Amino acid sequence: MDDRLFRTAMGKFATGVTVITTKVGENVHGMTANAFMSVSLNPKLVLISIGEKANMNQLIKESGKFAVSVLNEGQQDLSAYFAGQIKEERDVGFDTFNEMPVIKDALVNLTCNVHESVIAGDHTLYIGEVTDLRVTDGEALGFFEGKYRKVV
Ligand code: FAD
Ligand code: NAD
Questions:
Q1: What is the largest CA-CA distance in the chain?
Q2: Which of 56, 61, 82, 100 to mutate to test the pocket of ligand 1 (most atoms within 8 A of CB)?
Q3: What mean pLDDT is predicted for residues 84-95?
Q4: In terms of Cα–Cα distance, which of 68, 43, 87 is closest to 126?
Q5: Could you tell me which of 19, 4, 138 has the C-alpha nearest to residue 80?
Q6: H or E element that contains 8
Q7: 3-state class (DSSP) for residue 80
């Protein structure tokens, strides 16, 4: 099966956009991801899927922790930046929540300990047990057919 056809098909599933963050010592790292889902209510589990070549993969393995920030409609630029699509290095002013770096003003910040990880093809699925979260009102940044969208 053709890769482009697969991506076109998967792109028909509309999602929000998150930035995953982690910290190893003083090294803070962020990465854009739309492969995020809620898994379980009791215990509270979520799932992210990280490409094997992403720098984030090794860092989560080392830290055993990650945070998820659900982006608001005004944070498209941050999504492009943490996807490596804006080349200049920026000094991102992360917020700290439950001792983890998170994106300021996001709709949701949640922190997790890795509960389980599963290698699945060229990605690793990280199931995280949610240790804390906070929610802010606002509109979501949407992603559909490979483009950012307003959620209406
Ligand atoms: P890098 O390329 O190393 O970092 C990304 C960018 O963030 C770089 O510019 C880096 O300089 C900057 N950066 C990171 N940390 C900091 C910091 N502390 N201070 C300042 N700058 C910093 N890939 C997946 O594996 N899973 C997904 O679910 C997924 N979803 C995506 C959804 C969308 C909408 C998009 C656009 C991309 C998605 N990607 C996904 C692709 C992924 O975001 C990129 O491939 C990413 O560049 C790979 O991550 P990395 O850890 O190697 O990041
Ligand atoms: P696109 O058309 O490449 O993506 C559409 C959909 O295809 C995505 O929402 C995702 O569900 C799926 N997809 C894309 N690349 C994938 C991959 N390597 N592994 C598994 N699923 C994948 O959209 P785009 O705007 O061209 O994406 C920008 C960049 O971000 C591309 O390099 C893309 O590969 C990457 N991306 C990766 C993932 C992922 O790894 N899960 C998800 C989204 C985007």
A1: 44
A2: 82
A3: 93
A4: 68
A5: 19
A6: helix 3-10
A7: helix
CATH code for residues 15-141: 2.30.110.10
pTM: 0.97
Q: How would residue 137 be classed by pLDDT, with cut points 50, 70 and 90?
A: very high
CB distance 33 to 48 below 8 Å: yes
Q: Is the CB of 93 under 6 A from ligand 2?
A: no
Q: How far is the CA of 126 from the centre of ligand 2 (A)?
A: 17
Q: Which residues contact 76 (CB under 8 A, 6 or more apart)?
A: 141, 148
Q: If we measure between CA atoms, which residue out of 67, 69, 43 comes closest to residue 136?
A: 69
Q: Which tokens sit at 56?
A: 């984030």
Domain ranges of the chain: 15-141
Q: What is the pLDDT of residues 26-70, one digit of tens each?
A: 999 999 999 999 999 999 999 999 999 999 999 999 999 999 999
Residue type, 146: G
CA 137 → CA 67, 134, 142, distances in Å? 19, 10, 16
Phi, psi of 68 (to 5 degrees): -120, 130
ipTM: 0.96
The letter for the amino acid at 118 is V
